[in-house]
Amino acid sequence: MSMLRSVITGSGSYLPPNIVTNADLAKTIDTSDEWITARTGIKERRIADKGTLTSDLATKAAQQALENAGIDASEIDLIVLATATPNRVFPSTAITVQANLGITQGCAFDVQAVCSGFLYALTVADNMLRAGNFHKAIVIGAETFSRIIDWQDRTTCVLFADGAGAVILESEQATGTLADRGILYSHLRSDGRYEDMLYVDGGPSMGYPRKGDQGFVKMAGNDVFKHAVKKIGSSIEQALKDNNLTADDIDWFVPHQANKRILDAVAKRIKLDESKVVITVHKHANTSAASIPLALHEAVMDGRIKKGDLILIEALGGGFTWGSMLFRW
Ligand code: ACO
Asked: Are residues 225 and 169 in the same domain?
């Protein structure tokens, strides 16, 4: 059956140049490279300079994605940007990126699902493209997560970092089978009963706990770890079952880069060969909504991901929000 599919035709990413190693952190808080490496797999992360905004990182990633897709910004009619660290309360960061790219047609807006943001944004854009009202989209995950971290709290500050990744989605006629290129399946979930396990302790409506700050990330690390493995694992199992696939059919697994131990546990649970897992957490840390497109772009550029490969992505974030997606490159 002929149908529209959203095909990823290019990717891009941007990381701020400032590298902060585990040893750097150990100079200001009571931690060590050994502890961080053993518990998370993280060795270093990128932190944006004070004047660099989420929109700056996002714009650079989007420009590279446009270039790699070989299309001009004037052809874009939709921008969906996932972030938990927007430039400001409003307007959306996507609007600023739209202006930075010189785009004056179509629409742009933000999606907020924290670490699952890119998965949610891709799903929203895919549905808008397949409905036929929009044709070429930029989907971005971008964060300056360092701005909502308490750098004295060793239980959170070693985990998170800044960066941006983007893809171009173009609608194309396809056959409606799993052999098509493009987004083939999306499974999104959320459950607000868990909002106290991972949250920011301030905001415009509830007010701010400390004068002059914007609130900081608070996390029940152990609980988040257990929920992540269970919920991501069952979402992927659902995705494979719904499409009559097994882990052997997946060419590349590009997970949200939260923690190496979570990635290992999920891969083991779904019986996926570890050589198929794209890992960047050791050098990017957890960049929330930016982590999947950052990892995806790296595996595309170094030649691992090739045209026709079947890609599985997944994420879990504050809320909780979580899910998985299958697409063919
Ligand atoms: N350096 C040294 N010691 C530390 C640090 C640190 N940075 N942080 C905590 N500790 C200490 C604790 O204080 C505790 O000490 P105590 O035993 O004297 O009380 C000890 O280390 C063990 O703490 P736990 O919290 O039990 O350590 P755990 O093994 O659970 O590891 C971690 C903590 C890494 C946060 C883990 O729970 C985890 O990875 N959770 C998942 C969280 C995550 O990835 N969140 C990202 C957002 S959600 C997502 O993207 C999926």
From this structure: no
- Model's pTM, two decimal places? 0.97
| Cβ–ligand 1 contact at 84 (below 6 Å) | no
Q: In the prediction, which pLDDT does 259 show?
A: 94
**Both 226 and 281 in a single domain?**
yes
Ligand 1 atom closest to 114 (CA): 50
Order of strands across the sheet with 310-317?
182-190, 321-328, 310-317, 252-255
Our answer on whether the CB atom of 22 is closer than 6 Å to any ligand 1 atom is no
Report how far residue 3's alpha carbon sits from residue 146's, in angstroms, rounded to the nearest whole number: 42
Which residue out of 155, 231, 235 has the highest number of ligand 1 atoms within 8 Å of its CB and is therefore the one to mutate?
155
Q: Say whether 259 is catalytic.
A: no
Indicate whether residue 286 lines ligand 1 (CB < 6 A).
Answer: yes
| Residue showing tokens 């670490």 | 115
Whether residue 294 sits in one domain with residue 165 = no
Q: Is the CB of 198 under 6 A from ligand 1?
A: yes
Out of 174, 207, 228, a domain closes at 174
C-beta atoms surrounding 32 within 10 Å? 13
CA 129 to ligand 1 centroid distance, Å:
41
pLDDT for the residue numbered 2: 86
Whose C-alpha lies nearest to ligand 1, atom 46?
Answer: 258
Provide the domain count of the chain.
Answer: 2
* Residue 42, domain CATH: 3.40.47.10
pLDDT reported for residue 326: 98
Q: Which residues of the chain have pLDDT under 50?
A: none
| Residue 286 is a catalytic residue | yes
Cβ–Cβ < 8 Å for 83, 287: no
Nearest-angstrom CA–CA distance, 231 and 94: 29
User: Which pLDDT does position 213 carry in this prediction?
Assistant: 86
Residues 161 and 17 in one domain: yes
Residue 83 belongs to what domain range? Answer: 3-174
